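Sorry to interrupt, but I need a hand with the structure work. Could you write out one complete protein record for me, on any chain you like? Just paste the record in under my message, thanks.

. . .
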Amino acid sequence: MQETGLNILAISIFTITLSVLLGPLFNLSPYIPAGATFILLSLITVDTLNWQNKGVNLLINIFASSEQKERVIYHEAGHFLTAHLFNIPIQGYTLTAWETLKQRNGGIGGVIFDTQFLEKKGQDIREFNLMLERFGVVLMGGIAAEKLQYKNSEGGQEDLIKFGEIYAPITLTSSNLEMRKRLAILQATTMIETHKETYLKLVEFMRQRKSVAECQALIEENLMVS
C-alpha cells in the first residue's frame, strides 16, 4: 500500500503542477494550487505516518471496479478454505477497506488468522516446520484462487511480503524462496481445485458476509458429503 500511496501522491503532484502551468490561461489564482499542494501533502503525510495508509485504502476501495471487489472475495476465500483445511485458526475476515477500518486493522481486507499457533508449536521443531509450511500455503491461497478464477493475480502483494518474512530465517537464497513460493501456490491450487464446489459455495457465503462459524460449517458439511 505504500507504493500505491506514492503513486497517488505522484499523480496528484503532477495534476497540481499542470494546474499551476495552465492557471494563467484560465485566470486561476496561484494561491489555489499552492494551497491544494500544502493540504494534499499534509493529508498524505498524516495518513502514512499515523493511519498506516488507511485513508489511501479507503480511497482505492471507493473507486474500485465491481471486478476488483469480486477479486477480493475470491482471493480471501482461497485463504479461508486452505486455512480451514489445515486447521489454522481463523478469527474473522473483511472484504473492504471500510470493514477493515471498523475492525481497526490495516489493509484493504483479508482473513484474520490467530498466528499464536506458530508460537505454541515452537517447542517441537518438526511440528513447527510443518505448520510454517502450511501457513505458507495459506498465504499463497489467495493468489492461487485468483489465478484459477481470472487466469492471473492482481492482489497478494502483502501476502508475498509476509511469505518472505516467515521464510527469511530459513531460506538462504532468493531462488530458494521463489521455489518455496511456487510450491506453495501449486499446493494451494490443488487444494482449491479438489474442493472446487465447496470453494464456490464459500465465495457466495463470504459475499453475503456470513460469520466465520457459518463458513466453517459450510466447509465441514461439504467435506462430509464429498
Q: What stands out?
A: The two ends are 40 Å apart (CA to CA). Strands lie at 90-94, 110-113. The longest strand covers residues 90-94. Residues 1-6 have pLDDT under 50 and may be disordered.
